[in-house]
TrEMBL record:
Name of a matching Pfam family: APH
Superkingdom: Bacteria
SUPFAM superfamilies per record: Protein kinase-like (PK-like)
Residues annotated as domain Aminoglycoside phosphotransferase: 28-242
InterPro entries: Aminoglycoside_PTrfase, Kinase-like_dom_sf
The protein, known as: Aminoglycoside phosphotransferase domain-containing protein
Amino acid sequence: MSNDLSQGFTDWILAYVPAGNKLAEPLTVSPLKGDAGFRRYYRLNTQPSLIAVNSPPSKEKNEAYVDISLVFKTAGIRRPSIRAVDFSRGFLLLEDFGDQLVQSVLTDKTVEYRYQQAESTLLSIQQLPINPQVFKAYDADLLSEELDLFQQWFVKELLGIRIDSAAQLMIKTLYSDLICSALEQPKVIVHRDYHSRNLMILNDDSIGVIDFQDAVYGPITYDLVSLLRDCYVRWPMALVQERTLKYKQKLEQLGLVEGVGDQDFLRWFDLMGLQRHLKVMGIFSRLALRDQKVDYLNDLSLVIAYSLEVANLYPETREFGYWFKQEITPWLLKKSWYKEWSALQ
C-alpha cells in the first residue's frame, strides 16, 4: 500500500471492490499522476485493475461527476464506469481506462483519425438533451467569472502588473464582446475541458472521456475550440479552420446549427477560444502560485500565442492584442518559462 493512504480509505477500498474484480495478494494501491484538481488517483492490482479516487467533497463535484456519468452512459459515451462511491468521504472506485492519452499519439499522420474519433464523440455529447437539473447554464455570470481570472491571477499575481483605468475599460469592453458572442450561439451540452489530455485511447482503440464533472450547457463552439486549439498541442491555422468548417457541416446535418455562414461560425469559434484562453491563463497561473503545480507555466506560451493570434483577426479584439504586446509581453520576456510567439510557429 502507498504510504500516503489513510486507513479509512484503504479499508473502504477493501470493502467495496466489486465481486467481478479478483483481489490480488497482497493488494497494492499505486499512486498515479494527478490532474489540475484536488483529486488523487490510485491503481489497484485487482484483476481487472481498478482506479481508486480520493476526491475531497469540500473541493470537488463528486455528485455532479456521478450524475453526468450516468447521462453519458445513456448515450453510449465511453467514460469510466463507477463501481462504488461514498459521497460523504469523497471516495470512488472506477473502471481503469489505462494510461494512453490521445495527446501521446498525436502526430501529423494520426491527427486525422484521432480527431475524427474525438469529433464523433463530441457530436454525441452535443446531441444529449439539456437537463437543467444536471447541467447548469454557461451564462454571462459564469463566463464573466472565468474571464476575471485573467486579470486576477495572470496579470496581477503572476506578473505583478497593475492595469490602469483606460486599459480596464478596454478589457471590460472586450469581455462584453466575448460574452455576447458566446451567448448568441446555439446551446448544447459542453464538457468544458475537452482536449487531448482528457481523452483516452482504450483497449479496443475507441475514445474514452474523463474529467467531465464541470459540464454545463452553453455555446456550441466551446468544446470544439478546446479540442482544435488545445492548450497542449498546436496545429496550423489552416488545418484548424478546415476541421472547424467540416464540423460545422456535421452540426448542420444534425440540425444543431442553422442559417449561420462559415465566417460567422469561425468568428464564434475564434472569440470563444479567446474567452477560454484568457480564462486558462488565469487558471494555469493559479495552479502554479496557489497549488505549487509549476509545470503549468510551461504551457502558458502556447495559450498566449493563441490569444494574440485571434486578437489580430477582428476589429473588436485588435486593441487588446496591441495592449498585450505593449504592456504584458515585456514582462513575459523576463520569465524563463516563456517562449516568444515566433518560436511556436
